[in-house]
Amino acid sequence: LLQIGAYRFLLLAFSVVDIFISIVHFTLVPGIQMTEFGFIFFGFRFMQSPTDVGIWAGLIFVALFYQTFVLLCFHYVYRYVVLCNPSWLRWMQDHPWIKWICVGLTIDLLYIGGTHANCLPTYTHSQCCQDFY
After folding, report:
1. Which terminus in the chain has less CB density within 10 A, N or C?
2. Does pLDDT of 10 surpass 80?
3. PANTHER family under this entry (predicted)?
C-alpha cells in the first residue's frame, strides 16, 4: 500500500464517496418523472415528508453523485502530474497538500454550483408540480 504513495488518499476518497452515495441512494430512493414542462426529481422515501426536507435530500444526493465525476477528473490530473511533471505546475510543489485541496475545493464548488444553478428552477415548489401530483 505504501508503494502507491499519495495516490492511495485519492483512491480512499473515491471509495468513501461511493459508499456515501450508496447510503444516500438507499435512504432517498431517487426517482424522476418526465413531464411536458420538464422533469420532477423526488425521493420515494421522502414523499410524505415536508417539501424542504425532500429538496435538501435531493440536493445532497445530486452533490454526492457529481463528486464521482470530479474525483475521476482528479485521478487523471494526478496521473498526468506524476508522470509528466509539467513546468507550469512548479508553483504547486511548495505546500502541495494545501494547494491541491484548495484547487480541488474550488473546482468542486464551481462544478456543483453550476449544476445546482442550472437546475435551480426545479428546486422550488410550483403550481405546475402541484397540479401534476
Report:
1. N
2. yes
3. 7-TRANSMEMBRANE DOMAIN RECEPTOR C.ELEGANS (PTHR22943), SEVEN TM RECEPTOR (PTHR22943:SF248)
Range of the domain at 120: 2-132
- pLDDT above 70 (res 2): no
Q: What's the pTM?
A: 0.66
| Whole-angstrom distance, CA of residue 126 vs CA of residue 47 | 16
Alpha carbon distances (Å) from 133 to 26, 52, 126: 24, 17, 11
Q: What is the identity of the amino acid at 17?
A: V
pLDDT for 125:
61
CA distances from 12 to 6, 9, 18, 23 (A): 10, 5, 10, 17
**Residues in Cβ contact with 55 at an 8 Å cutoff, skipping those fewer than 6 apart:** 123
Cβ(17)–Cβ(67) under 8 Å? yes
Total number of domains constituting the chain: 1
* DSSP class of 4: G
Q: Which residue has the cell 420538464?
A: 38
Instruction: Collect all residues with Cβ–Cβ distance below 8 Å to 125 and sequence separation of at least 6.
Output: 51
Give dist(CA 54, CA 113) in Å, integer: 19
